[in-house]
Amino acid sequence: MGKHFGNLAKVRHIISFTISPFEQRAFPNYFSKGIPNVWRRFTSSFFRWSPQVTLMYLTYTWGNNVHQQGKRKNPADYANDE
Length: 82
Hints:
With 82 residues, the chain is mainly alpha-helical.
C-alpha cells in the first residue's frame, strides 16, 4: 500500500559520503587549538561585559542590604517599655 517513509521520493545524481563513527576523532586539536581559542575569545570580550556585570552585582547587593535594614525594628521605639 504505497511507499514507506524514507522511500517517498527517488533522488538521483546526489552522492553522499559519511565517515564511520569508529573512524571519527571526538576531540581533534582540543588542547592545541581549542583551549587557546577559548582564552583568546574570553580576554577579547572581558572588558566589554565585566563592567556591566560588576555594576549589576553591586546594585543587587546594595538593594538586598537596604531591604534587610528596612525590615529591622528600631530599638529606640522600645527603649522605655519597662
